[in-house]
Amino acid sequence: MKKKTSVFISGGGIGGLTIGLKLAKCGVDVTVVEKLPGPTPVYKGELLQPKSLDILDKLNLLNPTLENGHTIKELDLVEMTSRLKEIDTSVMKYDVIPSDYAYSLMIHHEKIKEIVRDEALKYPHFHYIPNSICKGFRENYAIVKKDKKEEIHVEADFFIGAEGRTSATRNEMGINVKESIYNHHFLTVTFPRPKDFTRGKIISTHDRFLGLFPLPNNEVRSVYLIPAGKYKELRKQSLDYVYKLYTDLVPELEGYVNKIDSWKKIQLMIPLAYHSSQYVQGNKAIIGDAAHTVHPMAGEGMNMAIQDGDVLGELLCDMYGQDKLHEDNLNWFPKVRKNRVKHQMQLSHLSALAYSYPYRPITWLRRKTLSRIEEDPVLHFKQMLNISGLGIWKESAVDRLSQTGIWPLRTKINQQKKEAKLFANSDDYPWKQEGLV
Ligand SMILES: Cc1cc2nc3c(=O)[nH]c(=O)nc-3n(C[C@H](O)[C@H](O)[C@H](O)COP(=O)(O)OP(=O)(O)OC[C@H]3O[C@@H](n4cnc5c(N)ncnc54)[C@H](O)[C@@H]3O)c2cc1C
């Protein structure tokens, strides 16, 4: 069977759906093929950072997102001794950013996908084909296997690879990615939480790490760091052993974490990182995890996919709107996104290093750095801005010295200076000023 569309998207994850909705909204015919037949119980990213909330607002989806999510304005970073006595708590506040979106939001991954997909399906020129795999490409069409039997050839002007880590489009573009692996893995599981456990919380000792991120409906998503390769051995332990790992660090979880009734609910998450050298080739582009995968420590993976979808979607909308379909225009996409992605990957990598080596000097440095970030308004703003995706302000030598206490604390930061660091429309979509070919 043959089919024609303007933009073909391989992969209906959060990245593919975001760009699909953007294109549908501006009247472009778009086809999304998705391998899975329906929702999956596999955990994926659930933390929406401020820039993604801004994008969802522009897509008129902020209200349903807020209704189905749990807002997090502050994160408590708790440091404990090996004897499990609390020694320090630093609080990271999103409201140091001068923005309407000075908060993050926890939402089930399948829920946010459903919200975006349902909105897109309102447009007759948005075509969503589940249970279908993009097998590869010929000259101007994609080969899709639908329902494991029927083969469809989808002809299109542009082909977007949004298939996540195993990307048929990236393979077609002949791009190899070099994966960095880490010395640790995570157990990840969602379970009920006490009603008043509403703040994001990271608890660490010199050799333990637990991240807790409240979800709506009194649930909490947890990530517990384990040494790489330890999972098989751990799975032989009773669930009581797991409960204790959690309640040792957060006693108030007693009676809640115990609701995990099977090891099957606890998933192993193996962090890795790679960054493709190229995002665009001819009339093909890759977005989200197909182009870059990031360590999950800073909660950026899903956000980077949404932010890619926004920029490439806006670009394609303008190309169709101005009837300027030359494929060279696609190069605006890496021009905007590549450095931002690189910076967020570095942030995530550094956070991972800070929490994953069980050496006391590293623990000391982490504690010192976190309390300085809390106290120094320049460091605090930079940290939250860089995580938020709303702007970039790189660390300077003075910042590094301030983090270790060698440089005195700065006491204030000018509001105008903060505002100048936020991305403007012309940073997000520079071709609007500079023109398309
Ligand atoms: C197990 C796991 C846990 C994670 N946990 C976190 C976390 O805690 N925090 C965080 O920030 N990030 C996390 N991430 C990362 C985050 O979920 C991803 O960065 C984000 O989902 C990327 O979105 P995407 O749309 O690019 O790719 P994906 O979400 O992977 O979506 C790709 C879609 O393409 C489909 N697909 C694949 N191949 C084909 C094909 N050939 N044809 C058609 N469809 C295809 C897939 O079924 C999938 O639906 C996790 C990722 C994984 C895999």
From TrEMBL:
Superkingdom of the source species: Bacteria
InterPro entries xref list: FAD-bd, FAD/NAD-bd_sf, PheA/TfdB_FAD_monoxygenase
Alphabetic keyword roster: Oxidoreductase
tRNA-binding listed as a keyword: no
UniProt cross-references to Pfam families, sorted A to Z: FAD_binding_3 (PF01494)
Listed GO MF terms: FAD binding; oxidoreductase activity
Stretches assigned to the FAD-binding domain: 4-321
The protein's name in its UniProt record: FAD-dependent oxidoreductase
Organism: Bacillus coahuilensis p1.1.43
